[in-house]
Amino acid sequence: MKRTVASTTFGILAVAFASAAFADLKPEEQIEYRQAGYSFMSWNMGKIKANLEGDFSSDQVSKAANAIAAIANSGMGALYGPGTDQNIGEVKTRVKPELFQNGEDVGQLAREFMDAADNLAEIAAEGEKSEVQAAFADLGSACKACHKKYRADN
Amino acid sequence: MKRTVASTTFGILAVAFASAAFADLKPEEQIEYRQAGYSFMSWNMGKIKANLEGDFSSDQVSKAANAIAAIANSGMGALYGPGTDQNIGEVKTRVKPELFQNGEDVGQLAREFMDAADNLAEIAAEGEKSEVQAAFADLGSACKACHKKYRADN
Hints:
67% helix, Cyt_c_prime (chains A, B), homodimer
């Protein structure tokens, strides 16, 4: 699935939107929810990796890829609202302040990430291990491209 | 989407599977990953609720419902392996021990939950607010049915 620049930018930097519909979400709650999303995607990435390295269950891989793609497309940009660029009490974030200063670049990275996640989900539904291997590597690269620039301790 | 009893039971109580493919996942990691899944579903439930109570964006609701359904279908049963029935250091769990002793009942509740999540995703794709309202209420009931029996502090 391809998406427009407009809709992705909306998803990534939907600060105004976040302020309106989620006025009740505190910055620390936004940080915790976005970390939950990344954590759950990480579990599913791990499952796909284990399948590629061992017994391959196309059903498990497809379900894992679907979860990653649906989370990636859920509008997590709304969880990067004002005040979420720093630790808040016990709630720590590894995001670099630069993420909030480079909307265009972050939007581009996010589009590539969502495209790679959608592609993996489509490929996984077909069940061919070698194809999954390539699509999985592409998705991993898309993850790392953002981590390298905008996540601390990498 | 309907699923068989066998595949759901596999998903819910896949202890043997978990031991094989995820031998590297410690019990505390399993607890953290499952909590991440529930937390992210909770964020998406909140978004749908906000849409039903205010301006209704069928696109946002559909994406939120897709995330919930994909997480629900991702095989979270593998995150209820041995040793995950109690707090582990700083990692706390609200699961009651009874969950691990009532596989058949838990499997039934999980099937109802996944069916309700799939139904909401299908309904949300059609974009009719009144239909979403009903499907959302059904999903909420399915969540609560399990919380009431198997989650502490409710």
